[in-house]
Every structure is written in C-alpha cells, then in structure tokens.
Amino acid sequence: MSQKMKRIYLYTRYERSWHWLQMVFIAILLFTGFEIHGMYSILGFEEAVEIHNTVGIAWLIAFAFFIFWLLTTGEWKQYIPTTKKLFLVIHYYSFGIFTGKSHPVPKRKEAKHNPLQRLTYLGLAAALLPLQMASGVLYWTYDHWSAWGLGFLTLGMVALVHMAIAFAVLIFIIIHVYMTTTGHSILAHIKAMITGWEEVEKNATIEDWEKAK
Amino acid sequence: MPRNNFILFSLLIIFSLVQPEAISAAAPESGKVAKSLEMTADAPENNFTADHSKFPALNQTFETGQDITNACLSCHNEADDQIHKTIHWTWLSPYDAEGKTGKAGYSINNFCISANKMEDTDCTTCHIGWNKKKEGINCLLCHSQKDIKWRDEFKDYAYFRESGDMDIANEIQGRIKEGAQHIGLPTRRNCGSCHFYGGGGEGVKHGDLDASLLDADKNLDIHMGNDSQNFQCIRCHTTIAHKIAGRVYSTPASMQRKSLVENDMVPKIMCESCHTATPHAKGSKMNDHTGKVACQTCHIPEFARKNSTEMWWDWSKAGKLKNGSPYIENDATGRPIYKSIKGSFKWEKNVVPEYYWYNGSIKTVMAGDKINPKETVRISWPVGSREDPNARIFPFKIHRGKQPYDIVNNIFLAPLLSPEENGYWKTFDWQDSSKRGMEIMGLPFSGKIGFVDTEYVFPTTHMVAPAKNALSCSECHVRSGGRMKNLAGFYMPGRDSFKLLDMLGWACVLAACAGVLLHGLGRLFTNGGKKEN
Predict the structure, then answer these.
(1) Which of the residues B22, B314, B413, B460 has an alpha carbon 20 to 30 A from that of B240?
(2) What tens digit of pLDDT does each residue of B29-68 get?
(3) Kind and range of the H or E run holding B313
(4) Looking at the partner chain, which of A17, A155, A178 has a beta carbon nearest the beta carbon of B11?
(5) What would you report as the CA-atom Rg of chain B, rounded to the nearest whole angstrom?
(6) B492 lies in a domain?
(7) Strand, coil or helix: what is A113?
(8) Which of B183, B199, B215 is the last residue of a domain?
(9) What are phi and psi of B136, to 5 degrees?
(10) How far, in Å, CA of B218 to CA of B98, rounded?
C-alpha cells in the first residue's frame, strides 16, 4: 500500500450480500427476459418464463428488505441527490482521469457515493427499478387487470415500459462494470465490494454536507 | 454482530418465501379430473334396471322398421314427441324462427352442397327416420347395441319373404330381433355411424371426428381412449329429453362458462364444465391463458391424427369419364383423390389447425345469399374478435374447395345430386341438376354456371391429446412462424416487439460498449496521466 493510502471498512456484510444477490437476480432476469422477448432460444420459452417470474418475485421481496435497511440505518441519506461537485466529477471522468488528477470526491464510510453515483443510484433505486418491478408485476398479473380497475392498460404498453427499462438497466451495467476499473487499480473497487475494505487516499477532506451521518 | 445476524435472517426469509414458488412451478399438473367409474364407461345396456329382451313388445316378428318403432313407443310414449322437436329430426336449427338454418333449410356447405330441402335422397341416408322425415323414427340407429344396417336388412327380409325363401328370411328376422332387443344409451358407434361419415365418407367432414375414434387409444383421445376414460359421446353431450347439447350453428353450444363445481345442472359440453377455468397447477401461467385461449388450442395440437381427413374438394373437375363410364382414383392410402361424380379431393393427416377468435357462434352464407365470386367465399366462419369478451382463440379445420355458382345472380347453386332423383351423379349434367335443384329451393337460376373458391370451418374440439403432447409455449410465443402468426390486434410476448424500441435499445447498448471501450483505451494510452515508472 502506498504511503498516502489507508484501508477503510466501507461496505457492510449486508450491503455486499445485497449487491451481489441483486447482481445475480438482474443477470438472470436480463438473460431470461431477452429470451422471452424472442432474442434467442436457449432455455426455451416456458423455462425462461418460469425462472423470470420466480426470480422477479424473489427480487421484489429482497428489494423490500433493502428499502427497510435503507430506512432503518439512515443509509438512504447516501442517495440524496446534489449538483454540488457534480460537474467536477463529470469533468474528472472526462479529462482528469487521463491526466493523473485525483478524484474530486473521495470515498468515506459516511460518504460512499460521489454526486454522479448519487444521481445514478437514486434514479435506479427510486425510479427505474421500482418501475421495472411494477411493470413486471403487472405483466405477470395480466388476467386480473379488469378486476383491479386497470382495464385501460394493454399488454403492449406494459411490455414497452418493461423492455425500455430492461435496455436502460443493461446499459447501466455496461457502464457500471467499466467504472469499477477506474479505482487506483483495475480490480480495487470489485475487491472492495467483495471484502468490504476499500483503499482510499489518507488526507482527503470530506465536507460536512457530503456526510450521511 | 447482531446486525449481521439480522441480515442473514432476512435472507433466510427471502429464500424461504421464494422456494414454494419454484417448487409449485416444477410440480406436475394438478386438478386432473378424477378417473371415471368403470361401470359408466362400458356396455351401457348392462347398467339398466330393464332387460329389453324380456319385453313381450320386442318378442314379435317385425315386418317393417315402423313395427319396431311402434313397439318402442308402446312404453316410451313421450319419445317421439321429444324427438320430433330436435334438430336430429328436423334438420333445422331450433334457434332460427324463420326455419331457414339447417340442412333441411337453406344452409349449404362445400361438400355435397345442399340437401335440397330433404329431396336429395342420398343426403338423407343419415336422417334418423325410416324414410327421411316421411315415416317414423328409427330408434335403433341411436339405441341398438348391435351394428346392423337396418334399411338393408328390412329390404332383404321383404325380398326373401316374398320370394318364399323362409330360411333366409327367418335368419334376417332373427338378426333384426336381436338388434331390437339389445337396447342401451348411444355409444360412439351409434353416434359415429352418421357423424364419423358426414359429407359422404369416413373422415370427409370433421377432422376431429372419424372412425378411428371407435377404437381410440389415449394418445388419439384422452377422453375416448379405450386405455383411459373410454367416454361415450353422451358423456359430454349432455342429453335431456332427447335434446343433445353441442350442435353449433349460430348459437353457441353453451352460453355460459360454468363448471359443474359452480352449477351441477349445466350441460357437460365445455372442457370447463369438468376441468374448471383454472385446470392447471396453482400459480401456473397456463391458468392465466384460459380467459383468451380455449383449452382446445393447446390440447389438440393436430387433428386427423390416425386417419386422414379431406381438406379440399374441387367440384369443377367432376364429370370426367373413362370409356364413357364414371371412375374413382384412390391414393396409396385408399382415399379417393378423384371421383367422376364429385371432382377431385385432397386429404391430409396430422393437420395443424388454423386459429381464429371464436365466441361459440358460426356465421354462414346460405343458398340464395349474394356472394362476391372475385374472392374466396367463406361459406361459414367463426364469430369473435380480440375485443369480444366472450371470444377466445380456437382451433379450426378449414375445408376448402371449388363449387358451382350462378354467375349472373351471384348466388350458390344447389344442384340435385342423387341418382334416384336423376341428379348429377347419374346424368353428369350441371344444367339440368342445377335447374331442378334450384327449383326445389325456390331460387332463381340463370343457366350460366361458374365455379368459385370457398371455405367452410369446423371447430376442432375432439381428439384431445394427453397433457404431455399439448403445445409447448414456443409454438406460439416465437418471433416468426408461430401458430398465432395470423392473429393481430394484441401484443403477444415472444412474438411481438416494438421495432423502434429494440433498434434504439440495442443502438444505445452498442454506444455504451463503444464509449467504455474508447474511454478505457484512452486511459491505457495516457497511462492514467501517471509518469512512466
């Protein structure tokens, strides 16, 4: 470890388990989802639907626990959106990263996410993923719509939303996975999400507004 | 670490919640109908409190068929009144106040076209009377447990008795008596003696009703198979006072989708009557299909699975003679592909049905209705659409062909066919047979004859396959070439997509890949801005 770095315990065991569990869920959902969409035939339609529905419901339940965790631990504050330093971060990834600059928003236990992450993760956790789950549940409960007063819906509308978000999630994953390589070493961020321990710069200052607690 | 224990506990709960779902999805289908009791399946005549052979009324010499009918009615004194009101007797739809719908009316098809108001005698060989509608009811067609050709036997009996050959006459009388004394509920053989041979031969009309059902195994029909339930027709075609549920013209076979669980007095004519609207395992996605997809659609993957069925009849080819005589040409399986009296035919086996929205009602073009001969004329077609709440996707046999029409009046012709009436089958004269046929119908005839392409539909509801042979999802849920390819107006997962969204989606995915690749390469070449070590 370089002189300037120190190890901090950044991600709790639940966070890490949740992260990887969700990764597995989403990977299975994307794989089976695109098969259901007719992109390829590997598992077969029936098997793909069974797995997609089962994993989808499992994700929904697990996500409820995640929300519970966010609320009870106060971790939700990590996701409060801000524009402060947002453009600094964008500028860093656009230019600074190529010229050896330091990241303008260093990680700390009480400030895990930079402003760009906050926006992205809030958008995902509060908008896209719940919408995906809602459209998925609607898709699944197609036969009950008229009984629930949702007769105005068509399967096409629901499928459109569900597919559009699926693409958005796939695009997120591509960028997200790439971004894990931008730590001080290629695998540093991935290691951190496995062990919980992240190496961060020693002397960075975290401003009060950045802190979740 | 209490918090970590809580997390583990939570995960445990999640998985325990998820597991039952996964298990029920993999479980075999439940909700199967309980196996029927043997006694209802076999030898119906053994189930009664009366042995008909002991009745004095049936221990006499029967000179004519009517003598037997009179003997039957001497006890069953309401039977003839009941029968005379049924479509089996009238050949007219009881739901058509005008009395036009039905074989005895103006209904036509693309087989033998029209019965010319019962005047075309060959068409009426299937009528349940001793001599069309003119004499009494032949109770034995439906109720005798002996397979006897009644009209022929009585003809032969009269011949030998008159010629004084009493040995043979008595032998025939013995067979007649035996047939009259062995009485029971109609079996598949009774019903099939007409319904398996409609249109002038075995397997001609219905693709899902033919003589193969007399000795079916469960692979051919899970209900009628000798090695499964061995149902007789009336097991589902519930009969009250000789009125048999199930005939479809414009009025659906059943107006309500109720199971016996909800109302034990409903006719057992629908799949749902016994199987309910949710026949699959609890939680199975298949149960969500039953609102829009009829059971038959998945459970009758193909019809005519043992014997072939006629799919095409071209009347325009009729009339060719060899050495001045009519002839018949058969294919390798013995099915006729050409008959001078009828034209050319095509037969198919293991036919994949065609699918339409269907609310149980069939619309028809009748003799006298104007047609547009420039396109294929649908003589009958299923009623329903995606928007119709009572309509579901249903499998059909479509019988196609060419048949004569009046090119001036643009109406179908109803030629007289039977040799007894000097019809087309004897004279090969379209002009004369059409003229006389249309006269009987009270319809105009210009004398100018053309041939037009036609279609006639049969709902496919028999030959239900075992569950393991039901359609797999991907028979329909597939991008192209699926069974539902011709049904539009709704989004079907796996088949349909929004082209623009897919293009845009994949373009963005590619752009993201290209973006991160370029960014990564940039970092590689600049070495992250760090000095070389």
Answers:
(1) B460
(2) 444 454 444 444 455 556 788 899 999 999 999 999 999 9
(3) strand B309-314
(4) A17
(5) 30
(6) no
(7) coil
(8) B199
(9) -75, 180
(10) 43
Return the SS3 of B533: coil
Distance separating alpha carbons of residues B39 and A138, to the nearest angstrom: 48
The pLDDT tens digits of the residues spanning B267-292 come to: 778 899 899 999 999 888 899 999 89
Q: Are B457 and B382 in contact (CB under 8 A)?
A: yes
Residue B286, both tokens? 């298949």
Query: What is the residue extent of each domain of chain A?
Result: 5-210
Name which CATH class applies to A5-210.
Answer: mainly alpha
| pLDDT attached to residue A185 | 85
Asked if residue B367 belongs to a domain, the reply is yes
Chain A nearest-CA distance from B4, in A, is 7
Task: Report strand pairing: B343-348 vs B336-339.
Answer: antiparallel
Interface contacts A/B by beta carbons within 8 Å: 132
Tokens 């899902």 belong to residue: B208
Whether B373 maps to a domain, the answer reads yes
H-helix or E-strand containing A6?
strand A5-9
Please give the distance of CA B120 from its chain centroid, rounded to a whole number.
Answer: 25
Tell me whether residues B22 and A54 touch, CB distance under 8 A.
yes
Residues B443-446: contacts with CB under 8 Å, at least 24 apart: B443/B367, B443/B368, B443/B411, B443/B414, B444/B406, B444/B409, B444/B411, B445/B406, B445/B409, B445/B413, B446/B406, B446/B407, B446/B408, B446/B409
**Collapsed DSSP state (helix, strand, coil) of residue B149:** coil
Contacts with A78 (C-beta within 8 Å, 6 or more apart), sequence order: A111, A112, A113, A118, A212
Tokens standing for B512? 């993201």
Under DSSP, is residue B405 helix (H, G, I), strand (E, B) or coil? Answer: strand
C-beta separation of B441 from B106 below 8 A: yes
- Structural contact between residues A65 and B12, judged by C-beta atoms closer than 8 angstroms: no
Give the containing element (helix H, strand E) for B21: helix B2-26
Question: Which of B199, B222, B248 is where one domain is finished?
Answer: B199
Write down the residue that tokens 């309910």 correspond to.
B276
Q: What is the pLDDT of residues B297-307, one digit of tens each?
A: 999 999 999 99
Q: Which domain holds residue B172?
A: 33-199
Contact B491 A163 (CB under 8 A): no
Ramachandran region of residue B61, left (φ > 0), alpha (ψ -120 to 50) or beta?
beta
Number of domains in chain B: 2
Structure tokens at A193: 């999400």
A147 touches chain B (CB under 8 A): no
Q: What is the value of pTM for the model shown? A: 0.87
Q: What is the ipTM of this complex?
A: 0.90
Judged by CB atoms closer than 8 Å, whether chains meet at B529 and A97 is answered as yes
Pairing state of beta strands B354-358 and B362-364?
unpaired
Encode pLDDT of A67-108 as tens digits: 999 999 988 888 888 888 888 888 888 888 888 888 887 777
CA distance B501 to A37: 12
Q: For residue B187, what are the contacts with CB-CB under 8 A and spacing of at least 6?
A: B44, B145, B232, B233
